[in-house]
Design goal:
By secondary structure, this protein is an all-alpha fold. The protein is built from ten helices and no strands. 73% of the residues lie in helices and 0% in strands. The chain is globular, with a radius of gyration of 18 Å.
């Protein structure tokens, strides 16, 4: 069987629909992370690390995260470029700046800062974050640069994907702690416990939605059943 061409947009089914839902997914991810940030319950490890470093060096967060993503993307391109798609670009460019924008918007509101507010932001933020991951991953338009590291490592090292991903998340979290990033309950949830939520969204919303709007072709649906 001939290898699938990389970024073959001409033969990609419903590109506009995939791009739309990839973008919607990135918006949900960013809004979910921001809610957890303003609720002081932490952010995901990668964002926590980048927030900490960017604050220390005095650089705009969105720009710093874009630079980090670009550096990782270069390595991913040479090691396994088939993990990169248009969804990758939307994610790496959009998340940092959207978190920055949503944080600015929430700071304009007279929000409470009590335990109830923290609990609400944790629940709603987690649900939005995992919904966003479900939406953008199921378009099959590539993964975020940081999410490509563990699959590549597991292919080249004598370790499972789970071991590589856990090592990655722990390392990034340690760096985030050292640089003063916003660590909290959501950091742990995002690193280790989002799988069941993403699976839930896949089943009850994302895949039914993609079937309704013909986002995936027959071959892609067969892969979903595999």
């Amino acid at each position: 069987m001939a290898q699938e061409k990389w970024l073959d947009l001409k033969h990609t089914f419903n590109v506009k629909g995939k791009l739309l839902f990839s973008t919607l997914g990135v918006v949900c991810i960013s809004l979910g992370v921001t809610l957890c940030r303003v609720g002081n319950v932490g952010v995901d490890p990668f964002t926590a690390m980048n927030l900490g470093v960017s604050a220390r060096i005095g650089m705009d967060f969105g720009t710093y995260q874009l630079i980090v993503n670009f550096v990782i993307l270069v390595f991913v391109f040479f090691l396994d470029k088939h993990l990169i798609g248009l969804g990758t670009i939307i994610n790496m460019v959009g998340v940092g700046y959207l978190i920055q924008f949503f944080t600015w918007a929430f700071d304009l509101l007279p929000l409470p800062r009590d335990l109830v507010f923290a609990a609400v932001t944790l629940v709603v933020g987690t649900l939005l974050f995992t919904l966003g991951v479900s939406l953008y991953l199921k378009t099959r338009m590539g993964v975020a640069p940081i999410d490509a590291v563990a699959p590549i490592a597991s292919q080249r090292l004598p370790f499972s994907f789970t071991a590589c991903r856990m090592t990655q998340d722990i390392a990034v979290t340690v760096i985030a702690i050292l640089v003063g990033g916003p660590i909290g309950v959501f950091t742990v949830i995002a690193a280790f416990f989002t799988g069941p939520f993403i699976t839930m969204w896949n089943r009850i919303l994302t895949l039914p939605l993609y079937r309704r709007f013909h986002i995936l072709d027959q071959q892609e649906w067969e892969k979903e059943k595999a």
